[in-house]
Amino acid sequence: MTEITLIGTILSVKTLLKIKEEHLQYLEDLAKDMHDDSVRQAIKQVLDTLNQIDEVIEELGGSSN
Description:
mainly alpha
């Protein structure tokens, strides 16, 4: 992975975590209100993945903020 790609990936992850932080309640409410089970599961999967990324960053001694 080149340095530019790595920097881009880090910025993308940080952006996703920022979105999660700012819109977490909305996303959770949206998942609850969805009538389509596949959409609800997709939203939950995204939230779970973002939480896992956040945990890995914390374990590595960093901060996602």
